[in-house]
# Entry
Amino acid sequence: MSKTKTAAVVLAAGMGTRMKSALPKVMHPLTGRPMVSHLLSTVEAVGVDEAVVVVGPGMEAVGRAVAPHPTVEQTDRLGTAHAVMQAREVLAGFDGDVLVLYGDTPLITPETLGKMLEARRGPVRPAVVVLGFRPEDPGAYGRLMMDGDSLEAIVEAKDATPEQLAVDLCNSGVMCVDGAKLLDLLDRVGNDNAKGEYYLTDIVALARGEGLACAVVEGAEEELLGVNSRAELAVAEAVAQKRLRKAAMDGGATLIAPETVFMSHDTVIGRDVVIQPNVTFGPGVKVGDGVEIKGFCHFEQCTIAQGATVGPYARLRPGAEVGEGANIGNFVEIKKAVVEPGAKVNHLTYIGDARVGAKANIGAGTITCNYDGFMKYHTDIGTGAFIGSNSALVAPVKIGDGAIVAAGSVVTGDVEPDSLAVARGRQEARPGWAGRFRQRMAALKAGKSNDKKGT
Ligand code: UD1
Ligand code: CA
# Structure
């Protein structure tokens, strides 16, 4: 049995003037990746046979973000219908289903796209299926003109009469169109309207004029809001964050105050992980089962293995790998370093470009001095080593297994396994010195004040 083919066209040529940005609108990130990338993973999830992205001039960055999916350029931005036409080469001769998505409507789910494809393939065989929704504030959205179950036309807010504006069923922008009819319909779209643009939305009335059926699938506002400004971007981010938190909790993590935990699209969190309030996961973070993350931590591109404890107030930067059962405490920063299983880095420490051996103990205030202003150097701390508080380990340097570094040392040379390194000024003792000092100073001060009285 031959399966109906599906193609997707993602419109992303608009600069998004209301974003007031040098970055193309669809490159603005949501949960740490460009909006347009969200759309492509969604269309990939429904299994489209091909997806093409329509970009504007000078948007090479969009091309790189969506690769290996191809892009086509819309040189003059003459409207959404004109934008779809730029994919003519992909669409010519294609008679499957064509999904049209707007790059600034990034929250749509594969389930909803699936419903649209289902509606297209249903008994009525509508030529156009439009995804509608009823936003709290219909504002500038296009309005869907219905006759019973049949969609008759889409009217843009700027072109609508007051009666049409009162309609609360709006156009999300997402459509599923019969590929055999699409180019034909697009060819007949004109630009005699308030914006002087070729509106994609006009294909509905054109299809109806030919007696072709058009239908609406309704979706939830949360999923369909369009991002046209930074304020709307923040609303979309909030929705996306809510989804990520729910997925983490569904996966067996406890979030004590979910609304204060921020994740990335690719955050991986195991089971029985407890996350206290105010934690931020940047991109590329993996957390193993049973990890406890205390409040106010910040992570990016790092891994935390099973049973480790991190925070409060810990910062794990790119390349930090926290081993099984290790403890990372408060005000600790770790970058490009492996902390092996069971090691403890509990307080006020910077570990960069380093290995901390299994079960090693890093005292409060330890700093790996990894940078001389030009190059970075490695610090290797052996298994079970003990670094006394407030030590500076000047890289490149190697601390052997089981070695002890005395507190306050500035270590510039390698330390043999199981040996002690003391690298600090020696303590001198002067019995009674403090008492004598105080007596002398008190007498001096008294003499001075007597002098003053005499004059
Ligand atoms: C569009 C719809 C409107 C719908 C709303 C949903 C039209 C005519 N109107 O309005 O009915 O309610 O989306 O959010 O389609 N684009 C191009 N090339 C162009 C013009 C636009 O690629 O020449 C892209 C934009 O980058 C954007 C998308 O198409 O990703 C939508 O364009 P936009 O101008 O934001 O349309 P709206 O006015 O929001
Ligand atoms: Ca828009």
User: Anything to note?
Assistant: The first helix runs from residue 35 to 45. DSSP finds eleven helices and 34 strands in the chain. The chain has a mean pLDDT of 96.
